[in-house]
Amino acid sequence: MGFVDEAEITVKSGDGGAGCISFRRERFVPKGGPDGGDGGRGGNVLFKATRRLYSLYDFSARRYFKAENGRPGRGKNKAGKKGRNIEILVPVGTLVKDGETGELLADLVHDNHQIVLIEGGEGGKGNKHFATATNRAPRFAQKGQKGKEKRLKLELKLIADIGIIGSPNAGKSTLLSRLSNAHPKIADYPFTTLAPHLGVIVFDDEQSLTIADIPGLVEGASNGKGLGHRFLQHIERTSFLLHVLDIYHPRSGDVLKDFSIVQEELRLFHPSLIKKDQVIVINKIDLNLVNSIDIGETCHAFNDLGFECLAISALTGEGVEELKQFLKDRVLPSEKTPEVSYSP
Ligand SMILES: Nc1nc2c(ncn2[C@@H]2O[C@H](COP(=O)(O)OP(=O)(O)OP(=O)(O)O)[C@@H](O)[C@H]2O)c(=O)[nH]1
Ligand SMILES: [Mg+2]
Fold first, then answer.
1. What is the Cα–Cα distance from 147 to 40, expressed in whole angstroms?
2. Domain boundary among 156, 177, 200
3. DSSP string, 118-148
4. CB of 305 shorter than 6 A to ligand 1
């Protein structure tokens, strides 16, 4: 199942059922009064966010969603049945926008967060409502109100506590698979990851954090080079960034330079991204025997820039428990509500 983060759909709420024109018919009552019941309300269009979905993929197969119409009223003052609502399930982090104007209509940020986007049409009133002193037998009733149809644009901006960033091939997905329940593709070439992945880190006390892995960022990413820029929107709403750096094979020949290339791409995408809390994770220390960079010194250089720094091997697992503990201490206590989004 592919990762899709945009979709266009059309929704319609149900029409209200018509009110009924009817008169009582009883033996010995020659001219019964009006007894036409009201029409039922049309169904509403609801949206509900769920953690069970992570992509808008399903909307490439189905694009039209309609709630049920209300049923007409009947005689003997019987009201028509209400139309059933339609509930559209979307992944957590879905923005619902007006398809014509782009206006933001809803932002579904929590699991099971449900909203009524469009109400169904009111049912029409039956003829019994229209009886007056001069017209005791009204031969009319109200029509049901029409439901509303709307074109919508859905946009997904993942909601995760932690975002993993870094150059291609740095070991981001390997780390994701170490820390969480996710099984991303891992391979020794750049751009192995083609779409964001979400994982959940579960701690011993059963508290948890969600973590998102995105494709690697290269110089020029903000101008469309590579894939990373296309997906940077998915770390906009993480509160914490984990920056993975490859110590064995820095792409620019220097770990600090690699770091600043990625930082610059974040800043160019949106300056708020580099204001997020960020921890530096120096990866592949198992290979450091070969070129023996002084890891302590490298970490100090990052400390001097104001960043905390940890050294690990995502492959052997060295330092990963410490990193997990660090994330627990640093990220868990903070409010887990996502930051307010912005439009770039
Ligand atoms: N020796 C060693 N190899 C590692 C380590 N972490 C990752 N690798 C290897 O590095 C290669 C790239 O790993 P990935 O996890 O796919 O890297 P990525 O950052 O997700 O790459 P992209 O998705 O292409 O951006 C794979 O061959 C991994 O096995 C490590 O700590 N030590
Ligand atoms: Mg990857």
1. 12
2. 156
3. EPPPPPPPPGGGG--SS-SS----PPPPPP-
4. no
* Burial annotation 249-269 (CB, 10 A radius, 16+ → b, else e): ebbeeebeebbebbbbbbebb
Residue 88, in any domain of the structure = yes
Question: What would the pLDDT profile of 268-322 be if each residue is shown by its tens digit?
Answer: 988 999 999 999 999 999 987 655 678 899 999 999 999 999 999 999 999 999 9
Query: Which domain, by its residues, includes 133?
Result: 6-156
Mutate to test the pocket of ligand 1, among 178, 183, 186 (most ligand atoms within 8 A of CB): 186
With a 6 Å cutoff on the Cβ, whether 188 touches ligand 1 is yes
Please tell me the distance between residue 187's alpha carbon and the centre of ligand 1 in angstroms: 6
- For 291, the token pair is 């070129």
End of a domain among 156, 172, 202?
156
261 in the same domain as 133: no
151 lies in the same domain as 224: no
Domain for residue 1, yes or no?
Answer: no
The pLDDT confidence band at residue 344, using thresholds 50, 70 and 90, is very low
CATH number at residue 187: 3.40.50.300
For the ranges 124-128, 289-293, 340-344, the maximum mean pLDDT occurs at 124-128
Tell me, using a 6 A CB cutoff, whether residue 170 lines ligand 1.
yes
First-last CA distance in the chain: 28
Using CB atoms within 10 A of its CB, is residue 192 exposed (0-12), middle (13-18) or buried (19+)?
Answer: middle
Tokens of 32: 């019964």
Task: Count up the domains in the chain and report the number.
Answer: 2
Residue 69 tokens read as 């119409």
Residues with CB under 5 Å of ion ligand 2 are 172-173, 192-193
Which own/partner pairs from 182-188 qualify as long-range (CB within 8 Å, at least 24 positions apart)? 182/213, 184/213
Rounded Cα distance between 258 and 278, Å, is: 15
